[in-house]
Design a protein that fits this description.
The protein has helices spanning 25-28, 37-50, 53-58; strands spanning 76-86, 91-102, 105-118, 121-128. The protein is of the alpha+beta class. The protein has one domain (25-128): Nuclear Transport Factor 2, Chain: A (Roll), CATH 3.10.450. The protein has a four-stranded antiparallel β-sheet with strand order 1-2-3-4, with helices on one face. β3 and β4 (121-128) form a beta hairpin. The termini are far apart.
Length: 131
């Protein structure tokens, strides 16, 4: 008798606890767009993890987006910790730590990020000094 095998979908790298296909892949694939700054930040982390350069450009404010290339996507990202998020109507702030591999060490990028509504969509603007 054959027993069915259950394949579990991989967890989303953003740390939401959902599967990738039910979380950030919805945004990275263009099926929908994040409706909060925190979900945008999580999806941008996943874009770095998966090497999705077009999504990073699309989700960055055009006034602050640098020239990005495939060279910017060589970091081995390990996990994301969202520390706190402050929701606003036109601007929001998300503080996070993004953990990455540096040689044999684990390091963290700690940032307080500013997000704004631009053409009715949340976009990343820049890091802030503090809250």
């Amino acid at each position: 008798m054959n027993t069915p095998t259950h394949q579990t979908e991989p967890a989303c790298p953003c740390g939401s606890g959902k599967s990738f296909t039910q979380c950030c892949d919805l945004y990275l694939s263009g099926k929908t767009y994040p409706n909060t700054a925190e979900s945008l930040m999580r999806s941008r982390y996943c874009a770095y993890v998966t090497g999705n350069l077009p999504y990073l450009k699309k989700s960055w404010h055009p006034d602050t987006c640098p020239e990005l290339s495939e060279q910017d996507l060589h970091t081995k990202w390990l996990r994301l910790d969202v520390i706190k998020a402050k929701k606003g109507l036109k601007r929001s702030i998300v503080e996070f730590k993004a953990w990455y591999q540096d040689g044999d060490k684990e390091c963290a990028l700690h940032e307080i990020s500013l997000f704004k509504l631009h053409k009715k969509r949340w976009v990343y603007v820049e890091p802030l000094e503090s809250w």
